[in-house]
Amino acid sequence: MKKSLKARNNDIANTARQLEILSGGIFAAGELPTFASKIKETNQFPLRPKKLEILQINLGYMCNQVCAHCHVDAGPDRKEIMTIDTMKQCLKVIKTTNAHTLDLTGGAPEMNPNFRWFVEEAAKAGIKDFIVRSNLTIIRANKKYHDLPEFFKKHNVHVVSSMPHWTRGKTDKQRGDGVFDKSIKALQELNAVGYGMPNSDLKLDLVYNPSGAFLPGDQMALENDFKKALKADFNIDFHSLFAITNLPISRFLDYLIASENYEEYMYNLVEAYNPAAVENVMCTNTLSVSWDGILYDCDFNQMLNLKVNAKTKHISDYNEEILQNRNIVINQHCYGCTAGAGSSCQGVVA
Amino acid sequence: MSKPYYDASDLRKFGKITEWSEELGNKFFDYYGKVFEEGALTAREKSLIALAVAHTEQCPYCIDAYTKDGLQRGITKPEMMEAIHVGAAIKSGATLVHGVQMMNKVDKLEM
Question: From the list B43, B68, B77, which residue is nearest A214 (CB)?
Fold first, then answer.
């Protein structure tokens, strides 16, 4: 299995280096407008939060997969894991927040040794939509994870899982050899306990990321193709497909540069810029909490170490009122969320 | 190093053709956009037709554009290649069917 950029001491693992790349080159030369100047054109600068709807908590960067596009640079060699003390601080916030959605992510969040305890405790808060982002293969990775579908069902967790394509070749190329077969098996097991079935309250949604230097196509058309193919080939049902644009950070940035696609990709993002998507971009209704409790505007800013621009920067001194009055931190990677129909952890936004 | 005749980045400048003939350019792009909307054919089917024609026309810009468009739509490699074979079959068929013209001429001229 491949190692993370961090374990390989790759230059791109350094967030300052990533920001230098994103601010330099074609943007410094004025060939393309910076994101700040672009949103100024439509009087959307500074970007400000609206009502908080989603609290996204990253339980750690450890993962059983090393996906080629991963913006977290997650993998088995990543040791950053949320401690039980930080989880307790998060639970305090979960019980009082006005957000209607709790979104647990990673890495593979299930690999956090206190994952199940945390889900049990968080579920008691009665948040309307409780999401766990599961990579699917974790369910088949080890016997101790085999009962995850039942566990998710018991706590009425909304499962959101990555699936880059309905064919083996494209999926394995992005996510690693054997991932497709294990993912299919896991989806069938989720279906078997009721997840993703028509009219079922057990929500199972899939996330599609393009497997290369191109933007996602129409979300609804892709969803139809996925549904048709997965049903015909494997008798799999799911509810919705979220098409998410790959942001030019971390491993995907490394891929773009190595494959000499970086400039063309940035041109594509800027050309596809949609001011209507800015209006609903996810950082305006989301807060992201890292494994060590630090607060960010979104998961992508977390991976670039761009902390919230507010007095309260840690879950231990969380104050929703202060956070609602902040300016959102932006850079050129934000073009990834405003291209075409827009992109967020919940799919298109415009 | 010699400069290639075609420059891939010129595709981004395609819209500039309106600068020298605004009305005709705009009419073309309006028409172009309309053609590729969902209709009796799906946008996906139209993308595959465009890819095949891009090859028969041997237009490098169109090949780049509709290869990327196909990937964005989740079109698979075998589907893309089959579309190109359809174009190639029509191209070669169009050549070979003229063999009948040759045969007719030979039959007319020979004793």
Answer: B68
Distance between CA atoms of residues A306 and A165, nearest Å: 31
CB A53 within 8 A of CB A33: no
Q: How many CB atoms neighbour CB A70 within 10 A?
A: 24
**CA separation, residue A331 to residues A29, A210, A289 (Å):** 16, 22, 19
Structure tokens at A104: 């647990």
Cα–Cα separations (whole angstroms), residue A199 to A82, A204, A237: 35, 11, 11
User: Which of A69, A209, A220, A264 to mutate to test binding with chain B, by most B CBs within 10 Å of its CB?
Assistant: A264
DSSP A94-123: HHH---SEEEEESS-GGGSTTHHHHHHHHH
- pLDDT (average), residues B39-57: 97
The pTM of this model reads 0.91
Residue B101 near chain A (CB below 8 Å)? no
pLDDT bracket for residue A174 (50, 70, 90): confident
d(CA A155, nearest CA chain B) in Å: 34
Q: What is the pLDDT of residues A277-319, one digit of tens each?
A: 999 999 999 999 999 999 999 999 999 999 999 999 999 999 9
Contact check, Cβ <8 Å, A214/B74: no
The closest of A225, A115, A234, A118 to A186, measured between CA atoms, is: A234
Please determine, for the modelled complex, whether the ipTM score is greater than 0.85: no
DSSP A340: T
What is the C-alpha separation between B57 and A124, in angstroms, rounded? 63
Mention the CATH class of domain A5-337: alpha beta
Q: Where are the domains of chain A?
A: 5-337
Taking CA–CA distances from B8, the nearest residue in chain A reads A264
In 3D space, the residue among A158, A174, A199, A177 whose CA is nearest the CA of residue A346 turns out to be A158
CB-CB neighbors (< 8 A) of B73 in chain A: 217-218, 221-222
Q: Is A178 helix (H, G, I), strand (E, B) or coil?
A: coil
Residues of chain A neighbouring B72 (CB-CB closer than 8 A) = 210, 214-217
Taking the C-alpha atoms of residue A98 and residue B94, their distance in angstroms, rounded to an integer, is: 68
> Does the distance separating the beta carbons of B74 and A165 come in below 8 Å?
yes
Q: Indicate whether A350 pLDDT > 80.
A: no
- Closest CA–CA distance from residue B73 to any residue of chain A (Å): 5
- Which residue in B12, B74, B76 is closest to A222 by CB distance? B74
User: How is the beta sheet containing A204-208 ordered, strand by strand?
Assistant: A241-243, A204-208, A158-162, A129-134, A101-105, A54-58, A286-289, A295-296
Of the ranges A137-146, A263-272, B4-13, B19-28, which one carries the lowest mean pLDDT score? B4-13
